[in-house]
Amino acid sequence: MLHMTLTEIRNLTWKGSREKPLILDAFWPEGSEKLPVVLFAHGYKGFKDWGAWDLFGKIIE
Fold this sequence. Notes:
The protein is mainly beta. Helices cover 11% and strands 31% of the residues. It has one helix and two strands. It has a two-stranded antiparallel ribbon with strand order 1-2. The protein is globular and about 40 Å long.
């Protein structure tokens, strides 16, 4: 497994439909050029800061 330094933004708020906020975390390798995007939606009543979701964002290569 290749180890790299990640940039992280936590609790970024994006205005969704009907003015309801979407709160998200973003992870990407530093110094990277254009990369594909992986969107992980954990489902209804999922809690963003519970479980291993942040670890999922850190291990995708």
